[in-house]
Amino acid sequence: MRVTITEIKEMKQRKEKIPMLTAYDYVTAKMVDEAGVPLILVGDSLGMVMLGYESTIPVTMEEMIHHTKAVVRGAKKALIIGDMPFMTYHISVSDALHNAARFIQEGGAQAVKLEGGESVAEKVRRLVDCGIPVMGHIGLTPQYIHQLGGFKIQGKVAEEAKKLLGDARILEEAGAFAIVLECTPAPLSKLITQKLAIPTIGIGAGPDCDGQVQVISDLLGLYTEFVPRHAKQYARLAGDIKTAVSSYISEVKSLSFPTMEHSYTMDESLIDVIASEAKQSKCR
Ligand code: KIV
User: Fold this and answer.
1) By alpha-carbon position, which residue is closest to atom 3 of ligand 1?
2) How far apart are alpha carbons 233 and 155 in whole angstroms?
């Protein structure tokens, strides 16, 4: 049985911290799931860490659905959340419903995430009314990067902080089952977490959120072009992969790979038969 949104909400009530990770492909999703992570986000961060775009803005629905399907095939237990890409839920409620439904019907996800507070509340309400669980996302919302003027901490001044608290309350009231707080000052994240009945999931939001989310490529040390201050590298796989590939190159060049240990054999007596048959067919 997959984890449900009810179980996620109960974790907050039990004061049990909620670990969440992103995943974008079958193999990684399987490992993350088997390790016991209850929430997997197919984040639009895949645009940067998997597809090499400069931001999340170019990510399309087709790309998200393709990766969501792979994650769903890999992870059998975790609740899977599809991240709605830029401008796929802003134009109209019907657009938001149509695109969110694709994540659930085609992608196989159990929930969607969208960025924004009050401005997206009406869409959140309608999605929830239609049976699509929604995770909110406020603070540093990368799809608003041009409007925000860069990757900056949000809610450092009183006006911004009040707006974020208001947005969080509005999302809860609209029916969101949890809210990501990205790059908000730790005391503000703590206050929002205390004021809400639904869980907050922080990234760069301090230790007092109900859960934490990290981008898997940061956690594994795979994406090294930019490592945010809030990321912790539990492994350094980029270095390990480069070392493995260099060893392979030098072993192929020096003939130390493959050895007979990595090769397949056949009965030596057949070699003569094959050679003579080949000779005969050439003569014919
Ligand atoms: O796209 C993503 O990976 C996210 C997380 C950072 C929350 O939105």
Assistant:
1) 43
2) 26
CA 258 – ligand 1 centroid, Å: 42
Nearest CA to ligand 1 atom 8: 43
Same domain, 137 and 272: no
Assessment of whether the complete model's pTM goes beyond 0.70: yes
From the candidates 7, 182, 251, 268, give the one annotated as an active-site residue.
Answer: 182
Measured from CB, residues less than 6 Å from any atom of ligand 1 are 22, 41, 43-45, 83, 137, 180, 182, 203, 213, 215
Number of domains composing the chain: 2
The ligand 1 atom nearest the CA atom of 83 = 1
Is it true that the peptide bond before 258 is cis, omega within 30 degrees of 0?
yes
Tens of pLDDT, residue by residue over 49-83, are: 999 999 999 999 999 999 999 999 999 999 999 99
Indicate if 192 and 71 belong to the same structural domain.
Answer: yes
Range of the domain at 29: 5-236
